[in-house]
Amino acid sequence: MAHTEKDPDAGHYRADSAPIYKELHETQEFAELRKRYRGWAIPATVGFLVWYLLYVSLSNWGGGLMDIKVFGNINVALILGLLQFLTTFGIAYLYAKHSSKALDPLATKLNDRYRQEAGQ
Length: 120
Hints:
The protein is mostly helical. The protein is built from 4 helices and 2 strands, in the order αααββα. The longest helix has 43 residues, at 76-118. The chain is elongated, with a radius of gyration of 22 Å. The model has no long low-confidence stretch (mean pLDDT 87).
């Protein structure tokens, strides 16, 4: 197994510790993998945080709205709270679909190249 020691000055892996990592990091495939990951993860994270902070804000300052009874003892606050869980599971499901379609093929290709060049 390759030893990867970080260079504290540069913030990158030292080139002499594992040259294959540096080579793979500089490939177009790796750049595309990072672009695809960030293109999904960053908007999803920001979107969920906005939704979560809206819920927290309404809980703190929107008592009138949150107290509205929808049916029986079920109010808006309870429904929005449960939707937080549904949103979390929905994001996880959508990420798994995105990952298997857009990320895994590139990651597998890079992993195969790593194994071939590292002699594993």
